[in-house]
Amino acid sequence: MSTPRPQSLGRIGIFGGTFDPVHVGHIIMASEARFVLDLDLVLFVPAGSPPHKQDQKLAPDDDRWAMLEMVVGDRAGYALSDLDIREPGPSYTVTLLERVQERYPESSLYFILGGDSLRDLPNWYEPHRIPELATIVCVNRPDVTVDLDEMLRLIPMLQGRIEFIDGPLIDVSSSDIRQRTRDGSPIWGHVPDNVAAYISDRRLY
User: Fold this and answer.
1) Which has the least CB within 10 A, 41, 73, 124, 143?
2) Which of 20, 21, 66, 19 minimizes the C-alpha distance to 44?
3) Cα distance between residue 67 and residue 97, in whole Å
4) Closest CA to 68 of 32, 35, 43, 40
5) Distance from C-alpha of 122 to C-alpha of 162, rounded to nearest angstrom
6) DSSP conformation class of 58
7) How far is CA 78 from the centre of its chain?
8) What confidence score (pLDDT) does residue 122 get?
9) Residue 80: other Cβ atoms inside 10 A
10) pLDDT beyond 90 at 141
């Protein structure tokens, strides 16, 4: 596991999550954010121990990393980062952003998430500090609405620090893919072919 070495990058997108497994929705979110905001790099950052999923058994770190490697590979403009997955303790976004800022001190950071995650942002650890460290990039998801006025009331620091992107609306989720795998239902089209083969070979989920 590794993180790209510091270099002269002006705009970096940070895309965190459990990626259990990574799916086509994640890929679309990352590519849309990079294109619309003209990001120099999008970092996929798998979480080590997300505090809101302590009751959920995750696939092993090595498997989640391997599936992300299949998606990211050597693709220009995208990279994998182990700044969270290798760290002990809870995976807090504010801590991750501090690590990225320390590694790329000259870069502007953009934190990529979906509308469902944005709605829950006030319940995250030290949410007021997140927009101080990075511009929030919300990629709209199907059937998810966000009350921006309410968000600004709860987290005033979001004012001027949030961007909304209308990407292709693909209703795919990792939880649904895990359930489909358990049920023996097809996941072709939900994840890249090599990820589907990996899930089958490793008998994940």
Assistant:
1) 143
2) 19
3) 23
4) 43
5) 14
6) P
7) 12
8) 95
9) 20
10) no
Of 65-74, 83-92, 190-199, where does mean pLDDT reach its minimum?
A: 83-92
Name the residue among 177, 165, 144, 142 with its Cα closest to residue 23: 177
81, 85, 66, 89: which is closest to 6 by C-alpha?
A: 81
Q: Is the Cα torsion angle 173, 79, 98, 91 positive or negative in sign?
A: positive
Residues 6+ apart with CB under 8 A from 197: none
> Can you say whether the dihedral through the CA atoms of 140, 87, 128, 37 is positive or negative?
negative
Predicted TM-score (pTM) of the model is 0.92
Q: Which two tokens stand for residue 121?
A: 């942002």
- Average pLDDT on 171-184 reads 93
User: 31 is written with which tokens?
Assistant: 């590519």
Q: For residue 87, what pLDDT is reported?
A: 82
Q: For residues 94 and 126, give the distance between their C-alpha atoms in angstroms, rounded to a whole number.
A: 7
